[in-house]
Write a structure and sequence with these properties.
With about 130 residues, the protein is mostly helical. It has one domain (about 1-134). It is about 60% helix and about 10% strand. The protein contains seven helices and two strands, in the order ααααββααα. The chain has helices spanning about 1-25, 25-30, 40-50, 55-65, 90-105, 110-120, 130-134; strands at about 70, 75-80. A two-stranded antiparallel ribbon has the order 1-2. A hairpin with a 4-residue loop joins strand 1 (about 70) and strand 2 (about 75-80). Helix 2 (about 25-30) crosses helix 3. It is globular, with a radius of gyration of 18 Å.
Length: about 130
């Protein structure tokens, strides 16, 4: 009986999440991007809360942890892997959405075109499966 109640409750929470996302202007804009669904849009909108807190859009990426970590020494200066600061769950959702845009999206959007051009400029050693899939 407890399992049945949990199932009903989970379904109701899912419907409520979809309903709330459809009522939010920010979530509707985000969900218009291929690869961004209700969960990713809601997670992003709630994590950012007040977009005016960020002077530039690149600051959002840094806050989430999607910018490269920089290593500097007297003779060495290079960009490393992403910093992994911020919300780990949101970063994973955005990574998954980017993968969908680059590998599964059939529409030629400017975002997908930009991502494919970025792929051509940078040969990522970390994500060979992502670059081969499209």
């Amino acid at each position: 009986m407890l399992e049945a109640w949990r199932g009903i409750r989970a379904a109701e929470l899912g419907r409520q999440l979809v309903r709330d996302a459809r009522q939010s202007q920010a979530c509707r804009i985000l969900m218009s991007i291929p690869g961004i669904g209700v969960i990713t849009a809601t997670a992003f909108a709630t994590a950012i809360e007040e977009p005016d807190n960020f002077k530039k859009s690149r600051f959002v990426g840094a806050w989430i942890g999607l910018t490269t970590r920089r290593y500097r020494s007297e003779e060495v200066d290079y960009d490393g892997h992403i910093s992994r600061c911020g919300d780990r769950h949101l970063r994973g959702l955005l990574y998954e959405a980017a993968t969908v845009i680059l590998t599964r999206s059939s529409s030629e959007s400017t975002l997908r075109t930009w991502g494919l051009q970025l792929r051509e400029r940078t040969a990522s050693k970390e994500l060979p499966w992502l670059w081969r899939a499209s």
